[in-house]
Write a structure and sequence with these properties.
The chain has 2 helices and 5 strands. By secondary structure, the protein is α+β, with helices and mostly antiparallel strands.
Length: 90
């Protein structure tokens, strides 16, 4: 079962969990499963056009899904999915 790492800025929307195991075959399913468990989580990742927000990066075993198949990217059984919100500062 894939493990999803939730970085600090998003943890409050996922029950303060550092990681969550989900039974899912694609990135879209991963996000859907987390949103079922923690309603509103998906809304933090997507814009009004139902696309991943520009400042959210999602990786599967270190590979950016933007360079794979996006939300349709297959998630292997023991993969680590990492959701990374960009942090701005100056």
């Amino acid at each position: 079962m894939p493990t999803v790492r939730i970085l600090q800025p998003l943890r409050r929307f996922a029950g303060d969990a550092e990681s969550i195991q989900v039974d899912a075959a694609t990135v879209a399913e991963v996000i859907s499963r987390i949103d079922q468990q923690y309603p509103g989580f998906r809304a933090r990742l997507f814009d009004g056009d139902d696309r991943i927000k520009q400042f959210i990066n999602i990786y599967i075993d270190g590979e950016d899904i933007r360079f794979l198949n996006g939300l349709d990217t297959t998630v292997p059984e023991n993969a680590e999915v990492t959701i990374v919100p960009a942090v701005a500062g100056g």
